[in-house]
Amino acid sequence: MHTVPSTGPNGVVISREALMRQYRAFTKTLQSTTMIDKVHIMAERHNFDSVRPADQLVSIGSTFLGMPHAGMEHRMSEMLETSRYIRIAGGPSASSSYLQDAEGCRCSSGDVVVLPTGVAIGHGPRTNMAAHQVFKQLFEVKDQHAGYDVFTLEQEGDAPPLGDYFGFAGNNVLLTWKDEHGMLAVDQYQALRPNDTLQVVYLEPGCHFLSFYGTDTCNDVIVQRGYDRSIESLAAAGLNPIPVQWSEMDKMGVSMRSAVLLLRFLKVSLGSVQTKSKVKATRWAQHQLTGVSSADFATTPPQA
């Protein structure tokens, strides 16, 4: 974290000490949730943005896709470095290159949101229709017994990445900001799936949150402290909101979605998706980070 700038993109002063303190607290909070099995901290490298690992790859089940932001060569060093850390964490040796191999394909991992019913993908300034076609070919399944869709959600030109304001938690809860972007996404999804009974929880615009859908039910949602109405709405829906400080990361323009690369590993010996222990006390004791310092950020493996 020695590369933390003194000011954010809009000129607001960033406190390095407060940012380090908030990041450590966030990491330990993440470890104590049922959202993950184990956390890895990605070390910094020169000319490498380790603060936003989720901008390089996306996990659809146990398939990891590299992101072509503007072409095959764009940010290739970040993709390779992230893949190396995934191997350290026990994942596959390489990510799939389907998106990079498709001519004219441009995609942002932030515009990809995994739901129980399929994959929602934002269409706007970061992700084009060529990417949507690749996702449909890879993941869309429709037959008389079951269906797994790829939903195209149109975005306004000034919309943030879809995953920053649209997500899923619990058994059947959609999370979204209560602004023009979030409400547009929900309206489109409901038009595409009119028979779904998903509950919608509206959060305050700008409220950072982190949730993850794999296959297990997870009621934990990490949410930015200070958004009391959002926390109350999450609790009223039967979810478990866990407030954390995020002010300094927010000043840098880093969302919780982009700061954590959540991956789902395939357990080869059983041929099935890895299941998660739900006993918080055991998991916390086993994987708790101890004595995190600036030196640890240079030697510890990354989030996975």
Notes on the structure:
This protein has 304 residues and is α/β, with parallel strands linked by helices. It has one domain (16-298): 5-stranded Propeller (L-arginine/glycine Amidinotransferase, Chain A), CATH 3.75.10.10. Helix content is 29%, strand content 19%. It is built from 10 helices and 14 strands. It has helices spanning 16-31, 76-88, 98-101, 129-139, 162-165, 180-192, 228-236, 247-251, 256-259, 280-287, and strands at residues 57-60, 63-66, 112-115, 118-123, 141-142, 147-154, 166-169, 173-177, 199-203, 209-210, 220-224, 240-244, 266-267, 272-273. The strands form 5 sheets. A 4-stranded mixed sheet has the order 3-4-6-5, sandwiched between helices. Strand 1 and strand 2 (63-66) form a beta hairpin. It starts with 15 loop residues before the first helix and ends in a 17-residue tail after the last helix. Residues 268-304 have low confidence and may be disordered.
Based on the model shown, name its key terms:
3-stranded mixed β-sheet, L-arginine/glycine Amidinotransferase, Chain A, 304 residues, disordered C terminus, alpha/beta, 4-stranded mixed β-sheet
Outline of this structure?
With 304 residues, the protein is α/β, with parallel strands linked by helices.
